[in-house]
Amino acid sequence: MAQDHTLIKVGKSKIGITGLKQAIEEVSKSFDGQSPEIIKGELFKRLKVRNYIPEPAKENYMEAFWREHQRSMGIEVKEASEELEIKILGPGCPNCERLEQEVYRILGELNLGADVEHVRDLKEIASYGFVATPGLVINGRLVSTGKVPTKARIIKWLEEAKPEE
């Protein structure tokens, strides 16, 4: 039987989890009516066997597994808000790759958490209403097109976009 792989949000990162759907199905049947803590613990126990879960992140994983369990039951669950959502728009040209690397380097220097996605699909890129790549989108706002912005400019946009602490 092939294992399912599911991408879920754990803390501020998206993580691929092996066997999540199967574990949720088994726990839902065997532990129906049990407390959330028991269900979280059982999901964690079953999933840590097939997935690397660092000990300091245990609570974040348990919460993520619980959210997915709730979703499987048809309960609407809100994600924890992401600090920043960044999209690099471009098919993979050298400037697109350079922009992506620069964004990662700046995020590291500023110690900022962000969900970074490199969008290479031309239809999705076109949906932003421009033609020139690379493009940079921060929290849904197109801030740059057609060039790799300066480091100072990117930092300014990130500072403006990050939520208040």
Blueprint (SSEs and pairs):
Elements lengths: L4 E6 L2 E6 L1 H11 L5 H13 L9 H15 L12 E5 L4 H17 L4 E5 L2 H5 L8 E4 L2 E5 L5 H11 L4
Parallel strand pairs: 3-4
Antiparallel strand pairs: 1-2, 3-5, 5-6
Helix pairs in contact: 1-2, 2-3
Protein model, in words:
The chain folds into two domains: 5-72, no CATH class; 85-161, Glutaredoxin, CATH 3.40.30.10. The protein has 165 residues and is α+β, with helices and mostly antiparallel strands. 21% of the residues are buried. It has helices at residues 20-30, 36-48, 58-72, 94-110, 122-126, 151-161, and strands at 5-10, 13-18, 85-89, 115-119, 135-138, 141-145. Helices cover 44% and strands 19% of the residues. Helix 1 crosses helix 2 (36-48). The chain contains six helices and six strands, in the order E-E-H-H-H-E-H-E-H-E-E-H.
Short summary of the structure?
This protein has six helices and six strands, in the order ββαααβαβαββα. The protein has 165 residues and is of the alpha+beta class. Strands 4-3-5-6 form a four-stranded mixed beta sheet.
Question: Keyphrases for this structure?
Answer:
2 domains; Glutaredoxin; single chain; alpha+beta; 165 residues; two-stranded antiparallel sheet; 6 helices; elongated; four-stranded mixed beta sheet; 44% helix
Specify the helix fraction band.
40-55%
Q: What overall geometry do the principal axes of the alpha carbons give?
A: elongated
Structural class computed from helices and strand pairing: alpha+beta
Q: Name the CATH superfamily classification of the largest domain.
A: Glutaredoxin
Classify the beta-strand content into a percent band.
Answer: 15-25%
By CATH, the topology of the largest domain is Glutaredoxin
Rounded to an integer, what's the Rg over CA atoms?
19 Å
Helix and strand succession? EEHHHEHEHEEH
Number of helices: 6
Q: What distance lies between the first and last C-alpha atoms, to the nearest angstrom?
A: 46 Å
> How many strand segments?
6
CATH architecture of the largest domain: 3-Layer(aba) Sandwich
Using the coordinates above, name the CATH class of the largest domain. Answer: Alpha Beta
The profile of the biggest β sheet is: 4 strands, mixed
Number of domains: 2
